[in-house]
Amino acid sequence: MMVNPWVEILLDDYENHMRLGSVMQLQTMNQMMKSQLEDYPVSSAMILGVAGGNGLEHISKDKFEKVYGVDVNSDFLKEVTRRYLYLDGILECLCVDLINETEKLPKADMVIANLLVEYIGYECFQKAIQQINPQYVSCIIQINVTDNWVSDSPYLHVFDRLEQVHHQIEETTLEKAMLIIGYHTIKTSDHMLPNGKKLIQIDFER
Predict the structure, then answer these.
(1) What is the pLDDT of residue 55?
(2) Distance CA 170, CA 200 (A)
(3) What is the DSSP letter of 152?
(4) What is the spatial order of strands in the sheet that 136-143 belongs to?
(5) What's the pLDDT at 50?
(6) What global pTM score does this model have?
(7) Does the keyword Methyltransferase apply (predicted)?
(8) What average pLDDT does the structure give for the chain?
(9) Cβ proximity of 93 and 80 under 8 Å
(10) What are the residue ranges of helices labelled H in the chain?
(11) HEC letters along 99-150
(12) Which tens digits make up the pLDDT trace of 16-48?
C-alpha cells in the first residue's frame, strides 16, 4: 500500500510555505476558522486535516466540551498537542488515514475540513461525514487560476509527491456530493489570495 505523502512532509516546511506573503493561506484560514468555530450552536467539533493546529486558539472553553484534531501525520499531531496544552481535556488528537480508516472516527456535532477534500476526494469525504454524523459541516476549498495548484515558493518541491493524492475540487460538485448524503448548503463565502487563487468556504447542515 502506498504511503500517504502527507506523512513525509515536515510541519515547518508546510507552515512556512503557507504563511509566505505571496501565499497568505495560513493567515487567511486562521481568520476563516474563527468564524467556523463561532458560528454554530455545537459543543463538539472535529477538524479533519488539522496539520499544526492553525486556528485552534479560537476554541472557546465555554462553548466546546470536545474538539478532535485529525491528521494522517503523527508528527503534526505531537506538535498540536505541545502547542495547545491549555486545551487539555477538550482537545484530542487522532492519527487517522481518512482514505483507509474512516471507521476509527468518533461522532461530533460539527466537522471542519479546510483544504482537506482535495486530498481524499469526494467519495472518501462522504464516507467520513457519514461516520462522524455531524449536524454541520464547514469546508474550505481552493480554486486555482492556473494549473499550478501549489503556489510558487522556495518550498514548492516539498509538495511534489502530493500530486499522487490531489484532486481538483469544484464547488458545485462538492455541493451535489453532500446533498446525496443529506446535507444542504447554508452559506458560502469567497476569500481572494495575493497570488490570484481563491478560498471558498461552503457550510452545510443536515
Answers:
(1) 96
(2) 10
(3) P
(4) 91-95, 66-71, 44-48, 110-114, 136-143, 198-205, 184-192
(5) 98
(6) 0.93
(7) yes
(8) 91
(9) yes
(10) 11-19, 25-38, 74-83, 117-132, 171-180
(11) CCCHHHCCCCCEEEEECCHHHHHHHHHHHHHHHHCCCEEEEEEEECCCCCCC
(12) 888 888 788 889 999 999 999 999 999 999 999
The 10s digit of each residue's pLDDT in 65-96 is: 999 999 999 999 999 999 999 999 999 999 99
Give the pLDDT of residue 159: 78
Using DSSP bridges, classify how beta strands 184-192 and 136-143 pair: parallel, antiparallel or unpaired.
Answer: unpaired
- The per-residue pLDDT for 73 is 96
97 and 85 in contact (C-beta within 8 Å)? Answer: no
Residue (of 85, 82, 46, 84) closest to 64 by Cα position: 46
Give whole-number Cα distances, 7 to 4, 67, 134, 161, 162, in Å: 6, 22, 27, 11, 10
Question: What band does 126 get if pLDDT is binned at 50, 70 and 90?
Answer: very high
Ordered by where they begin, the domains of the chain are: 5-52+63-205 (3.40.50.150)
The number of angstroms, rounded, from the C-alpha of 92 to the middle of its chain's C-alpha atoms is 16
